[in-house]
Amino acid sequence: QKEVEQNSGPLSVPEGAIASLNCTYSDRVSQSFFWYRQYSGKSPELIMSIYSNGDKEDGRFTAQLNKASQYVSLLIRDSQPSDSATYLCAVNPNTGNQFYFGTGTSLTVIP
Amino acid sequence: EPEVTQTPSHQVTQMGQEVILRCVPISNHLYFYWYRQILGQKVEFLVSFYNNEISEKSEIFDDQFSVERPDGSNFTLKIRSTKLEDSAMYFCASREGQGGPPLHFGNGTRLTVT
């Protein structure tokens, strides 16, 4: 069973702060990692993809991957109230088509 | 930007009835998926479809479920005899290829079984 674990939260940060979201996964052969944002009642929306160890930055978002520790994180700088959502970590092993999702971390940005 | 479209957005049906959920994946994508999300729970994999056949399916995807790509654009999920516990949001997703590209989700169909 391939597991993806996230802190369910809720995580609350003040507006302008850095939000840090964490994810661990069990399958060592996993190669592709994704962060999705899901607003209540809506579908998951892709924020970041990361495939190599290290950091990947896109605007206010930075994804960090450490395959040795089987750990992927998402940092949101200058958090805005509109960032309040559930953030889903997803992992895709190179073997097989299935994406494995964590339970999601609920983030609230307080104005 | 191309997107995955799903219809209907909300479907109400009685227990024991058949429902068909419809999806139009992004046109150049090769892999198609159905996921479901029961209210307040995680996104759960149902089935993946490639080259006109099922490539993977989960334990949830039992004999009550079937998928079809009846033409070059539509991808459908059929539930033959709905149960109360089938009430959930059903998401269709597609991806361009294997080994890296992300999933792109449709807006979902909320299925309510009464």
Could you describe the 3D structure shown?
The complex is a heterodimer of chains A (111) and B (114). In chain A, the strands form 2 sheets. In chain A, strands 2, 4, 5, 9, 10 and 11 form a 6-stranded mixed sheet that branches. A 5-stranded antiparallel sheet of chain A has the order 1-3-8-7-6, with no helix packed on it. By secondary structure, chain A is mostly beta strands. The relative contact order of chain A is 0.35. Chain A is globular and about 45 Å long. Chain A has no helices and 11 strands. The model of chain A has no long low-confidence stretch (mean pLDDT 92). By secondary structure, chain B is mostly beta strands. Chain B has no helices and 11 strands. Chain B has strands spanning 5-7, 10-13, 19-24, 31-37, 44-50, 53-57, 65-68, 75-79, 88-95, 104-105, 109-113. In chain B, the strands form 2 sheets. In chain B, strands 2, 4, 5, 6, 9, 10 and 11 form a 7-stranded mixed sheet that branches. The radius of gyration of chain B is 13 Å and the shape is globular. Chain A binds chain B through residues 31-32, 34, 36, 41-46, 49, 51, 88, 90, 92, 94, 96-104, and chain B through 31, 33, 35, 41-45, 48, 50, 55-56, 58, 89, 91, 98-100, 102-108.
